[in-house]
Amino acid sequence: MRKEQVLDLIGLAARLILGVVLIIAGAVKIPNPQLSSRAVQAYEILPYDLAGTVGIVLPYIEVFVGVLLVLGIFTRFAAIISTLLMIAFVIGISQAWARGLQIDCGCFGGGGALAAGEEPSYLVDLLRDAGLVLLGAWLIWRPRSLASLDRRLFGNA
């Protein structure tokens, strides 16, 4: 296998992993916007009403960007948005951990304050999101990948 083929295969894997994670994360939150809003509000970063609105809108953005990545269309744009989202999630989780907040990240539904005695999974969440940042960074640097609509529509994109 040539170097270019290997790099294209890595791009495909990065696109699919990041895209599927975003689709799942968004899709599980869409049916319950109040819970999604509560998850964002629990971070205590944004004003309460703004956090509620972000919680309602964010799942749709996650699904939209995830679909772009899975299809491989506008890959660099989708990678930039997904990477910025993941960096925001890393910052949010880090500040919650540093401030001693006892919350569920709300990454895949749920969210808000944890029950007494329940421990947050901040380290696992941070490691996962850091890995997703790396996948997004790869796609920003090299958006070309196998089985992408970018290739079909725009040539060697």
Account of the protein in words:
It is a single chain. With 157 residues, this protein is mainly α. The protein contains six helices and two strands, in the order H-H-H-H-E-E-H-H. Helix 1 (3-29) runs antiparallel to helix 3 (48-71). The radius of gyration is 17 Å and the shape is elongated. The protein starts with a helix and ends with a helix. The model has no long low-confidence stretch (mean pLDDT 95).
List the helices and strands and how they pair.
Blueprint: H1 3-29, H2 33-42, H3 48-71, H4 75-98, E1 103-104, E2 112-113, H5 122-141, H6 149-154
Antiparallel strand pairs: 1-2
Helix pairs in contact: 1-3, 1-5, 2-3, 3-4, 4-5
Portion in helices: over 70%
Spans of at least 5 consecutive residues with low confidence: none
N-to-C CA distance: 20 Å
Oligomer: single chain
Largest sheet: 2 strands, antiparallel
Compute the number of helices.
6
Please tell me the overall pLDDT: 95
Order of helices and strands: HHHHEEHH
- What would the principal axes of the Cα set say about the shape? elongated
Q: Main sheet: which strands, in order across?
A: 1-2
- Total strands: 2
- Portion in beta strands: under 5%
Radius of gyration: 17 Å
Structural classification: mainly alpha
In short:
It contains six helices and two strands; from the N terminus they run ααααββαα. It is mainly α and 157 residues long. The chain has a two-stranded antiparallel ribbon.
